Amino acid sequence: MVSRVIPVDPFDLVIFGGTGDLARRKILPGLFRRFCAGQVPSDARIVGAARTDLDSDGYRQMVREALAEFGRDIACDEGTLNGFLDMIQYLAIDARGETGWAELAELMVGKGRVEAFYFSVSPALFGDLAERLQHWGMADEDSRIVVEKPFGHDLASAKELNATLARYFDEKQIYRIDHYLGKETVQNLMAVRFGNMLFEPLWNAQYVDHVQITVAETVGVGGRGEYYDKAGAMRDMVQNHLMQLLCLIAMEPPARFDPDAVRDEKLKVIRSLDPVLPHHIARGQYDAMPGNEAEMPSYREAVDHPRSRTESFIALKTHISNWRWAGTPFYLRTGKRMAARSSEITVIFKDTPHSIFAEDAGRHRNVLSIRLQPNEGITLGVTIKEPGPGGMRLIDVPLDMTFAEALGVDGSDHVDAYERLITDVIRGNQTLFMRGDEVEAAWAWTDPIIEGWEARHDVPKPYDIGSDGPTDSTEMMRRDGREWRKVTP
Ligand code: NAP
Q1: What does the record give under GO molecular function (predicted)?
Q2: Quick one: what percent of the chain has pLDDT higher than 90?
Q3: Looking at the chain, which terminus has fewer C-beta neighbours within 10 angstroms, N or C?
């Protein structure tokens, strides 16, 4: 089955930070893929902007190289590539200076179409960009801005950032990206939850034993050491990505699938989260790989901070104090240099109240697993009889709800999270973007946890590279009579 591609209206997209890593790795390849799919009209305009002194030809060459490196999987001929490059131009602009702004304002004059400004730069520049866009008359009602994470590093800074942006743009014009929300499976999760009668009656504390959300990475901190050591796994991953996934799993059915209805429900979940107790948290820092310390240094060496107390791993248990979820634990876990790269949400249902089968027949729980990467998909573990003679023995088999084969969906239909979110920006659909109050509520929950560590001078426990994190994490589960799902690629 070929998916329907509905072209977006012509637009102007300015990428501030157009020479940066994110633009080259995600934004430009994403736009190119949508162009090849026929979704981006050829009279759209893409303007790269940064301080680097380049002309448009030089920038197009840079984009060509970025696409060769990060868009290798995109099947497109040279003519199509040239057509895409023709849409692109470059302006040297300093977010903090006067260079380039008059030229940009002139370029944007009077087209009467959607103007999007992607702030793919350090958050320290968001205010400068917003202020100059307004000063030069580009912050009009047809314009929208896209801002990247991190959105603040605590509640106070997030409030300040929200207040700064609100001086120049209405909330309806601000698109805060969390690329986890752009993943196909995350949206499929909502379709499965709210498009079927089957699950919703069971989706509560009476039938769900617990929920696990794991985002495991095999990479270390890489070149992001300076930023990461100030953030840690809690700020870098839990406050945003894991929190968003938790919201989608736990929220009440919104009245409509529209931006404010969905985001109102997510906000209620965040506001219902209990504070996390210190013994419901396991923090870790990865050790060096014995015998390969040069390529796989310890966290502290990687960030060049021998006494760092920042966590590269965190596991925690939290509860949602509302009628639906009271008593059901939600376990969140994320870390670097773990056994496999894997992001998965798992809903583990309770045992049947009574087994009619012999004790040695075996007993399994239903497990709904929503896998975000790699191999996006949703499976439901169901119990059936093991085929063949030999009496009644029960086995657990996965029911694949991705139906990739049945739908004939293959790699060519693949839509990356970034490209989906960029087309949503152009269409003016904020459903998959975080609202300012959501971000603030998430920080309000996160801040006391981090302040607690700081007050106690908490030191993360070491863990081996390629493991499932420190033993504290396993212990936390064992105390509850549960275990983490194995992290598998
Ligand atoms: P980067 O590689 O350091 O790029 C920064 C960009 O900003 C460059 O194009 C730089 O170009 C431009 N820039 C710096 N100062 C400027 C100024 N005064 N005026 C105009 N442009 C300026 O950073 P990045 O990795 O692309 O990240 C960009 C944003 O996305 C950050 O907020 C980051 O946290 C976020 N993010 C990145 C990733 C990722 O995978 N890279 C993932 C999630 C979020 P010039 O030096 O030429 O000015």
Answers
A1: glucose-6-phosphate dehydrogenase activity; NADP binding
A2: 85
A3: N
CATH fourth-level superfamily of 11-148:
NAD(P)-binding Rossmann-like Domain (3.40.50.720)
CA 242 – CA 245 distance, rounded (Å) = 5
What's the mean pLDDT in 311-317? 98
Tell me the whole-structure pTM to 2 decimals: 0.95
Q: What is the pLDDT of residues 198-238, one digit of tens each?
A: 999 999 999 999 999 999 999 999 888 999 999 999 999 99
Query: What does the chain come to in residues?
Result: 489
Catalytic entry in 135, 153, 210, 241: 241
96 lines ligand 1 (CB under 6 A): yes
423 is in an annotated binding site: no
Task: Give the separation between CA 317 and CA 136, rounded to whole angstroms.
Answer: 48
The model's pLDDT over 150-207, given as tens digits with 9 standing for 90+, comes to: 999 999 999 999 999 999 999 999 999 999 999 988 888 999 999 999 999 999 999 9
Nearest CA residue ID for atom 37, ligand 1: 22
Q: In ligand 1, which atom is closest to the CA atom of 96?
A: 18
Tokens of 34: 């949508």
DSSP H helices in 27-100: 28-36, 56-70, 78-86
- Topology of domain 181-479 in CATH is Dihydrodipicolinate Reductase; domain 2 (3.30.360)
CA dist., res. 47 & res. 42, Å (int): 14
Cβ of 122 less than 6 Å from ligand 1: yes
**Are 355 and 334 within 8 A, CB to CB?**
no
Residue 146 Ramachandran class (φ > 0 left, ψ -120 to 50 alpha, else beta)? beta
* Angle subtended at Cα 107 by Cα 105 and Cα 108, rounded to the nearest 5 degrees: 65
Please, what is the angle between helix 56-70 and helix 28-36, to 10°?
80
Q: Where are the domains of the chain?
A: 11-148, 181-479
| Separation CA 307–CA 143 (nearest Å) | 46
Q: Which residues contact 303 (CB under 8 A, 6 or more apart)?
A: 221, 225, 226, 228, 229, 310
Choose among 78, 71, 80: nearest CA to 37: 80
